[in-house]
Description:
The structure holds two protein chains of two kinds. Chain A is built from eight helices and four strands; from the N terminus they run βαβαββαααααα. By secondary structure, chain A is α+β, with helices and mostly antiparallel strands. In chain A, strands 2-1-3-4 form a four-stranded mixed β-sheet, covered by helices on one side. In chain A, about 40% of the residues are buried. By secondary structure, chain B is mainly beta. Chain B contains two helices and 15 strands. Chain B has helices at about 140-145, 190-205; strands spanning about 10, 20-25, 30-35, 40-45, 60, 65, 75, 80, 100-105, 110, 130-135, 150, 155-160, 165-175, 180-185. In chain B, strands 1-10-9-4-3-2 form a six-stranded antiparallel β-sheet, with no helix packed on it. Chain B has a five-stranded antiparallel β-sheet with strand order 11-15-14-13-12. The radius of gyration of chain B is 19 Å and the shape is globular. Chain B starts with 7 loop residues before the first strand and ends in an 11-residue tail after the last helix. Classes of the chains: A alpha+beta, B mainly beta. At the A-B interface, helix 6 and helix 8 of A face strand 2, strand 11 and helix 2 of B.
Amino acid sequence: MAGLVLYNYELDENSYRVRLFLAMLGLEWKTIAVDMFPGREQTKPEMLARTPLGTMPVVEDGGLTLFGTGAILAYLAKAYDTAGTWLPDEPSAFGEVMKWLGFSETALAPAVSARLQALFDTPGDEKALQAEARRAFRVMDDHMTARQIDGSEWFAGSGPTLADLALFPSFALSRDFGVDHDEFPALRRWIRRFRALPAFHTMPGIPDYH
Amino acid sequence: MKLAEGWVPVALSSSIEAGTSAGAVVEGQEIVVWRDNSGKAHVWEDRCPHRGMRMSFGFVRGDHIACLYHGWQYDTAGQCRYIPAHPNLDVPQTIKIPTYRTEERYGIIWTTSSADAALPAIAGTEDAAPVRSVYIDCPPEAVLPALGEYSAAGANAGIVSVNGDRLLVAMQSISPAKSALHVLLLEGSGTQKSYARWAQDLRFVLEQPAPAVAEVA
Lengths: 210, 217
């Protein structure tokens, strides 16, 4: 099957990461809606054939099937970002981006869980998840404090990269799980710049300033 | 210090860009700190009179701030001027958000609900360079002893000397268990970045659990 296909759930922040990147790359794709809540469709055999752990989203491109948000984002950058700015080739720039891409999949996992717990009552210790998410945001705010003093507005390099794209949704959605933006002045400044990028769009939970 | 007791530092001026808003808390009281497009800072109660939504979740348009819920817009005096659901309505004067006195000095936004409080006078702050605001999970009264060589310039601000450099540190009491410090570099050989790290390290120290008191047999 030719063309990009995204298995998507509108309220899933990882699906949003991929939607956002597809749009920012100026690509066209076909969306297949997966009923994560309440249907839990991603945990049933038809979807498990594509994503054995039941994680979302999934991208198909030609004969390729990808699960894992970081892998999908990295693949899309390699395949379609002809300018090579989102995931630079130069080793140290690549390393810096991968560091934060990894952070988004590990340190921000509690933020993803905290939000699902708040919205859909999925299992988890609400207070502990919230505290871990806040700890990750602090690391991000400390980093961007230093970056902004140096005159940089982005997590890695001189322009937006996959680092910014992968980190943005959890912080932008943090009010969904009761973590406010008061304590993170450097991240407030950063998300304002990220929101101004071409082809940026919101998802439910991220206000659209009309 | 409560808003009614005197001038409270609530943000670095550089942290509130023109056309943006942020929430803050002073001794449990929620406030919105926002800057209109002309550059003037405002501090209000963080509550839309319509449905109680926090105004800090909203957005700034020109010299109005709009609530995220239903787009009610307020002018710089806190007066509601426009209700999108009733575009032709002459909005009643009674729809108003309480505003607080707001001043910017030393690179800090200060606010108070007291009519006669005086801002602390601090000399030698002409070249103050913003370092950062740092938010610490510790009681406000625990901060002062951790600052080292500190000379008070008012109830909640003072000069800290570190390796011969001078920092302005202004303290915001958020709750019995949370504090914020707004830090600026006044003069010295250290960099803003090195003092951003210093503030981060201070947070680390202040958040260490209190050592267990040894029991005397």
